[in-house]
Amino acid sequence: GNSDTGGSGGDDGTITLGFSQVGAESGWRTANTTSIKEAATEAGIDLKFDDAQQKQENQIKAIRNFIQQKVDVIAFSPVVESGWDTVLKEAKDAKIPVILTDRSVDSADKSLYKTFLGSDFVKEGRLAGEWLVQKEQSATGPVNIVELQGTTGSAPANDRKKGFAEAIAANPNLKIVASQSGDFTRAGGKQVMEQFLKANPKIDVLFAHNDDMGLGALEAITAAGKVPGKDITIITVDAVKDGMQALADGKFNFIAECSPLLGPQLMDLVKKVHAGESVPARIETQETTFTQEQAKEALPNRKY
Amino acid sequence: MTGSQPVLTMTGISKSFPGVRALDGVDFRLLPGEVHALMGENGAGKSTLIKVLTGVYRTDHGAVTLGGAEVSFSGPMQATAAGVSTVYQEVNLCTNLSVAENIFIGREPRRLGAVRWAEMRRRARALLARLDLDIDVNAQLGTYSLAVQQMVAIARAIDVEARVLVLDEPTSSLDAGEVAQLFRVMRQLRDDGLAILFVTHFLDQVYEIADRITVLRNGRLVGEYPTSELPQLGLVEKMIGKELRALERLDEQSRHDAAAPVEGAPLLDVRELGRRSAVARFDLTIHEGEVVGLAGLLGSGRTEVARLLFGADRADHGSVRVHGTPTSLRNPVAAIGHGIGFCSENRRAEGIVGELSVRENIILALQAARGWLRPVPRRRQDELVDRYVRALSIRPADPDIPVGNLSGGNQQKVLLARWLITEPRLLILDEPTRGIDIGAKTEIQRLVAQLSDGGMAVLFVSAELEEVLRLSHRIAVMRDREMVAQLTNDQSVDADRIMQTIAAGAGHEEVPS
Amino acid sequence: MTTLSLLAARTRSRLPRRHVPVLATLVLLLVLYGVGVSQYRAFSNIQVVFNVFIDNGFLLVVAVGMTFVILTGGIDLSVGSVVAMTAMVSAFLLREGLPAALVLIIALLIGPTLGFLMGCVIHFFDIQPFIVTLAGMFFARGMCTFISGSSIPITDGFWTRMSQQRIGNPSGNFVSISVLIAFAVVAVAAYTLAYTRLGRNVYAIGGNSQSALLMGLPVGRTRIAVYTISGLCAAIGGILLSFYTLSGAPLIGVGMELDVIAAVVIGGTVLTGGSGYVFGTVLGVLVLGVIQTLITFDGSLNSWWTKIVIGGLLFAFILLQRLIGIRYK
Amino acid sequence: MSDPKAYRALTTHRLFWPVVVLVGMLAANTVYRPGFLSVQMRDGHLYGSLVDILRLSAPLILVALGMTLVIATGGIDLSVGSLCAISGAIACLYISRQPDQNSVGGVLTALALGLGVALVLGAWNGVLVAVIGIQPIIATLILMVAGRGLAQLITEGQILTINSGPYKAIGVGHLLTLPLAIFLALAAALLVAAVTRRTALGLIIESVGGNAQASRLAGIRSGRITFLVYVISAACAAVAGFMMTANVSSADGNAAGLWVELDAILAVVIGGTSLAGGRFSLGGTILGALLIQTLTTTVYAMNISPQTSLLFKAVVVIAVCLIQAPGFRARFTRRRAPAAGPTPVSEQPKEQVPA
Ligand SMILES: Nc1ncnc2c1ncn2[C@@H]1O[C@H](COP(=O)(O)OP(=O)(O)OP(=O)(O)O)[C@@H](O)[C@H]1O
Ligand SMILES: Nc1ncnc2c1ncn2[C@@H]1O[C@H](COP(=O)(O)OP(=O)(O)OP(=O)(O)O)[C@@H](O)[C@H]1O
Ligand SMILES: [Mg+2]
Ligand SMILES: [Mg+2]
Predict the structure, then answer these.
(1) CATH number of the domain bearing residue B264
(2) Do C121 and D318 touch (CB under 8 A)?
(3) PANTHER family, alphabetically (chain B) (predicted)?
(4) pTM score
């Protein structure tokens, strides 16, 4: 076929972007999708969207089909880090540039993709941990932490756990006494927290890998007759609207943001990559952390 | 059969099921080159003895020797390998496979491990020809009637290089011609030195083929007798355990002289009823209190007629009137609504619900007719079930055991009871006495006569011509899926006459209805 | 002469009846493909068809194994997890530095072993296959996360070659080695079912296992064999998946068992056993693959509409299949 | 045992072994953490792990009840998880649109809406299976896939949070110091039991599942029965969906009821109902559901690492099956107690003729 810039969309000058999303497994993910769709419309980019329903196989299939359709640029949020070399090589051979969003891949051959745009899960865990170390600096006795992990085996769960563990290693008083998977869901968070509360008489801190599990745990804590945010310090990741609300209400104590609003940045990159401009190999999204005060300020202008 | 060594001995065999002692110290022996009949009432333990022999059940006590060496089969596979070839009571074949496969599966002709399909079909055809059966060996077995399936099962068993051939009620669905053919083959095999164990409830067949007889009663051995030394009446007494003038009573029931009650409007009147590729269009009228017999050879379409009249299959042509009102028998529910009941010949596939208890099986049709919202009150259930368990002497008489645990004949009685309690106006009985012992058979025949005297109409289908002749007012004759004649059952009609009718095929004296 | 024509008429009328479900599926699949071609320009590209095979090679292999199990009237829920476990074990062992050949052997042994054990439990203790294989599913998935919580990349030369080798025109239309392996498995399975005793016993047991037992067939052995075969196919599928993704990931193939069962059933195999063909299973896998391709090509559906449309297409397909089946009955 | 007969009757009861496993699991928990069984009074209601197990198993019990009937007819319903999500989403969406989320009338309307839609979808399943004759697994798979999408369509992929006291009560409210949810599940169980066992419905379902062909010839309209059980299953799933969403006061189209169909089928099978259809046991199903929930809770309570928890579950599930399987126990006991010696020759008279 036509191997230059030529794509099916190239005929009329618009750029065609094939985007493979992980799925719609959380509110965060949906916000991410919405952001990308809106930004594409705004930037006049023809978006081919595919939902992989949390399956790597489906993403690989989608990328293959994008290659067949000769899109101009391919972007995707990998379900897992490894296993992309073969299909990315096919994309490279077809001279279609690839952009990774949200999560990176561990491919040794860095030429397989142009750039990575997204957040660093390890860093989010670390930020959460560092804040806790800061807060408990003066603690003399042991501080008991319980952790609500995301889906076992998923990248954010692994990385946030890792980052958090690294950070709290700074203070030997900080100790994770129980750690269970809440599957990133409210129901899961609640159910696990109920048992934590019964099994551990003294819980000082809860670290949840996302807001939803934290929100579920809130109910369990309240039902156990404790005051969230006071009796138990709650730290979460994501900063979705309900989470921010809880933070502003003083029920959470700290949130490390993981922003889903990658759309505009992604579209910029797509244009640059398509035009053949050089782009940095790694771009981290603008992310911040929120304390209760910051949340109160930020809440009115949050988009999701 | 002089002092030769038994090829098979079973000594002190006992087998208990939860709550039932099916076999209690039974001895049995089988000589090479003999046909040995195993006799007993329904539930006496015949099938259990056979299943113990072939390793389907594990014995509680007792020993089995085959060719002098003690054996203990862990299953039919081993038994077959050791030279015991068996046809079990219910047709145990795979209806989803072709006829040829059913005959040869497990010992298919192969080359380099690959099944030789063409060769298999050829041999199947040859084998069936030996039994005088001409069917498409490529067709699914399930498309054939139960009788054909029974023949296929027999074909499967006689093809094996075996020392012992076990036939558990192989003739229950067969008509006279097929039985004769089977007996020819059996004699041939016997003369080749094969030992044949044969179970049947037809006394005539026993006396025709068996060399010796072993009788079981209630799981115990009664004795072993040369056929020539045991007269029929003696055999019946040994089986039942008391003197009974069953056979005499049986003869009294003949309908030869009873005139058909043709007065009044017909109960069921069908015109030109038919179904493509099943049965040709036929007219049939049945009056209240009338017993109409349906005679014909294997595969002649009797079952198809019965099914059409019950709406089990849908007719694609013809009209139906019930009590003079035009209606249609779309499905069984519609037929039941008109007071028609149907007892299928294939009790295992279309009759009993094996997991459910005897009680539940008996009230099933009555309950279905009442609708699920109005359960039959427990007291009434007990009353009905009790009555029929006694009337048909269903054994064991415990209504709460799963019907699947009953012996074949007793299952058949349960099915009959199911329909009798619905008090239908027309009862279609397809081979109702299949596998039923002589005592119960008399009982059922008496019941049919009694019910028809009470005004119930009966369509009686049976492979046993005598039975049809004895019970029917009128006999419709089937041939090649066509109703070729309807005869009034008067003195002039006998088995020969019916066979002639079938052979001639054309309509003899059509009886105006 | 008359007999001949009669015979011909009979074969003509009988042959399709048995094959109608499969033929109907084939026709509908072609219609589905035709819809794609008429809607999307790039769909007519032959590579699209090849990609369906490349992308579903492992699914096909696993579905072939499942066909055996379902034909006996059983079910094997463990396949998705066994696939993942095989890939995971391979990746782990390769990372530990074991030679590729040894890894391949070990990986190919685990699945059948687990299948064999499950078959034994099902047969000897008479426990429902559903529950036994569900436990097997938990076990295999548990092994995945037990081995590693995160995905393990594979860098081994052999694996990479198998993964990236293109057969055909490397810059034009090509298939992967996995596709050839999958075809080989299909061919062997079809032969086994049609021409070996094991295969015929499988059908017999599915038809009526009680009868099969009384007919003196090796019911226990066959039943254990089909779960072992299913385990083997899942293991091969796992290897193919590790070729496909060049990694082992603990969560891969979650819910794959449902896709596989769906493929088998869409291909005309009856869940109660006794009737169906491997070729039907191939069609079933292709149907799922083409539906997915159609949706990717469309590219305008959001996540939930994707699911609804998949369900809708599945419904339309099965309904038509069923209606054609009834018509020809 | 003092009374061997009573002992036998007890051990051969079909629910004996599941109960043993359940008790064993609770005992193991108590050994691990002595306070596990303790139940305290807190804020006027009972509080403790046992209460949690009861409350959390309520939705599973509901779904499994409906599933039992479906399975008894020889079918299977994979769509229950999606139906849970749909009914919950509809109810939450309706409530979230209300000016006053706490109005009881509004909540009741929401429940009626959710239930109504679920009934329609159940009828859809029923038609596919009973009228069109599609294999149940594939017929319900359609709704399993598409239903998830529908649920997400309703919530627009977001987690819909509501703040409604009356609705929340379905999930976490209390009655007589016990969770309301368990009363609801119990009521549903009693209702299903009454409908199936007080009428002839149960018998007819078992008959259809045991031998469909024979049932048809006995005059049972098996199509209607099949249709009905899918509708009942959908209704049960809908109520379970209300509970799941009320438990966390939010509807999550993606996660609500995810994989509950597998748990429900497992509960039914553990309860002794065969997947081939026929006899069913509602009591067994409830016990199975309790067992599964206890297993999940045990994983959390014993803090078994998430990486190994599935292995743990696998071991327990297989243990439950083995211990329940007569085949397994028979082998086990036979090996220990070899068959009794030969019996004395029976004394009944025998006639024998020379051969
Ligand atoms: N699987 C079983 N479970 C429990 N009881 C059984 C089982 N099989 C047979 N029985 C019982 O054992 C007894 C003997 O049955 P069997 O089938 O051997 O009788 P039979 O002599 O063959 O009778 P028929 O002439 O009716 O076939 C009967 O009382 C029957 O109820
Ligand atoms: N030569 C044949 N070719 C095809 N089908 C046959 C043939 N012979 C018999 N059949 C089968 O026989 C059936 C028609 O006979 P039906 O079942 O009514 O027999 P029947 O008269 O009741 O005799 P029986 O029950 O003793 O076989 C059909 O279902 C058909 O499948
Ligand atoms: Mg018998
Ligand atoms: Mg017949």
Answers:
(1) 3.40.50.300
(2) yes
(3) CARBOHYDRATE TRANSPORT ATP-BINDING PROTEIN MG119-RELATED, GALACTOFURANOSE TRANSPORTER ATP-BINDING PROTEIN YTFR
(4) 0.90
